[in-house]
Design brief:
By secondary structure, this protein is α+β, with helices and mostly antiparallel strands. The chain has six helices and 15 strands. Keywords: Signal.
Length: 273
């Protein structure tokens, strides 16, 4: 048997371990990518409905609400059901443009610097024109916001997922979401002068990433823990939305624009890269 000097053996082992580990991680990541690609249920659109267990009377403004996107922030507003489907109930009448309810799905976030890549969350932010944006958590304030890739890439973009029973949204492995009363940090007059206050928007979504009650970020504002419940949209609803969007865009382009009836492919073309 040939004699192998201990120094050479150790040197080889030290260099080999990272290589083997890297290969294993690469195989694991490729397996995960294959599973994600095959799991079409992650790309089914859903709305987000809110539940809050607090007995505080003020929590009634949050419980049974619906998530909407406005002014680059993610808000909770009351909801109303029409024909068994949830819709935002505007706090102030005749808001223009109308409040847009979250309607999104999971998909890998496009960033080669993130290894392994993270599962992102996107939502429509407009029906006319149809546009998608990334949902992310501001790395400084921990508030949920939305924007394109440029706006989101420096912040917390994942890993988004669902609970074991697929009923609720989670981020970084747990349900750490809170609703914060943005108006409680200022006088009523000051609040009414803000763009949010003028539209009656009050409760914004935050992520208690450090699990400490947003210490240092809450600033004495009212806060409640909330659960983000997934309410799946039917295939019929999604096709109807795409058909309506296609008709509007065809009118605007004088019949010269064609779109696809696959939601992710059609919507990825605009607004979220």
């Amino acid at each position: 048997m040939a004699f192998v000097p201990l120094g050479i053996f150790l040197g080889g082992a030290v260099t080999a371990i990272p290589v083997v580990t890297g290969v294993a991680e690469g195989v694991s990541h490729q397996k995960k990518q294959n599973e994600e690609a095959a799991n079409e249920t992650r790309m089914i659109k859903f709305n987000i409905l809110i539940s809050c267990d607090s007995k505080d009377e003020l929590a009634d403004e949050v419980d049974k609400g619906i998530v909407v996107l406005r002014h680059n922030k993610v808000w909770i507003v009351p909801r109303e059901d029409r024909d068994g489907k949830p819709f935002p109930k505007p706090p102030v009448p005749n808001i223009e443009p109308p409040l847009h309810a979250f309607a999104g799905f999971y998909i890998q976030y496009p960033d080669d610097e993130r290894c392994p890549p993270e599962r992102g969350l996107v939502s429509t932010i407009s029906d006319d024109p149809p546009m998608l944006n990334w949902i992310y958590v501001d790395s400084n304030t921990y508030e949920l916001r939305y924007g394109n890739r440029t706006a989101s890439i420096q912040h917390i973009v994942g890993e988004w997922d669902w609970t074991e029973d697929e009923s609720c949204v989670i981020l970084e492995g747990w349900e750490g979401f809170t609703a914060i009363d943005e108006s409680s940090a200022m006088s009523e007059e000051e609040w009414e002068q803000t763009e949010w206050g003028k539209e009656g928007l009050r409760w914004a979504l935050y992520f208690d990433r450090d699990d400490n009650g947003l210490k240092g970020r809450r600033n004495k504002r009212n806060m409640f823990e909330v659960v983000l419940n997934r309410r799946l949209q039917s295939t019929e609803d999604q096709l109807k939305q795409l058909e309506e969007a296609e008709k509007k865009m065809q009118v605007k382009s004088r019949g010269g624009l064609k779109s696809q009836f696959t939601a992710p492919a059609a919507e990825r073309k605009r607004g979220w890269r």
